[in-house]
Amino acid sequence: MRGLNVMRIAGIRVTVDPSWLIIFFLVVWSLATGYFPEARPPIEGRAAWALGVAAALLLFGSVLVHELSHALVARRAGVVVPRIRLFLFGGVSEMTSEPPDPRSEVRIAAAGPLISFALAGVFYAIVESGLPSLAPGGGPLLEYVAALNVVLGLFNLLPGFPLDGGRILRAWLWSRSGSLLKATRWAGRAGSTVGFGLMGLGLFELIRGGSLGGLWLMVIGVFLHQAASSAYEVLLLQDTLAGCRVRQIMTQPVVAVPDHASLEELARDYFFRHPRGSFPVVSGGNFAGMVSLEQMKDVPRDDWGRTPVRQVMTPGAQVRRLGPEDDCVMALQAMVRDEVGRLPVVEEGHLVGILSRRDVMRLLKIRSDLGS
Ligand SMILES: [Zn+2]
Fold it and tell me: In angstroms, what is the span from residue 156 Cα to ligand 1's centroid?
């Protein structure tokens, strides 16, 4: 979860991805060296750079207002948005749950492009009023920001999930099929297709003119394609594992090593007998820690006979553990985040089971085979 926290608006944290800084610089640079020197009358040098920075900041504000509109409409529909992330050419409002119904989804999705078009209208109106011509470069600056808001609104209306247009498509499919999962699969496929389309278009642009715009399109295409496929997978996983508790699928009884056993015994009676990378360690009936093959290998072989397991193990306090009533999706996320294959299940200090990724995958396979 990288990103710089820049502000907090209406209780929503706003973070900027490091990639956004690169885009910020590219926008300033292309405006200061290309757009403003070609304006009439031309603006060059320091003034052009200052206007470039102003335009990039207004663009940043426009993207932020776009995302905020999604977040505030979502909140009214009961969907919590703890964070808005701004990166590359756009932003993401992170929602903790899916919208409650198709109608809310349409409202949440449509708010962003509508606000972008409204902003464009406001900027164009200011240009038309003649006010900006009082300051040199004011007209071209606002025209640029207005045009980019139109582009932002239109781009987001492309019918590929998770873009706003793709969300509207999903809401429509959802209301017709009654299944959010099916709707997400189809809208996600549309998202992948749009992503591939953008990649192709970008490649074509790049070959034809070698312009930066082509590269830009390709990056956005790749991003969209990935986001579309992972959105469906996450939802499928949550749907399939819904209601599952760790105790239902954990492995028990557990093969556990007493903490006083020597590494010699650990190798002979455990690692050679059960093909696993690590074992839980117990002291009395209580969970004491985890010991891995690597930790054993770190000790010279000659010392194995006189080194007890508790001397090399990771102590229990440093091990992430699960409770028997924990949610399976959360448990799987914890294993993926920590890059571990198994986690001990502990209840009131006692080791009651162990949950492996394989346990979760087995359940996933059974449930998807049964189609339930
Ligand atoms: Zn949007």
Answer: 6
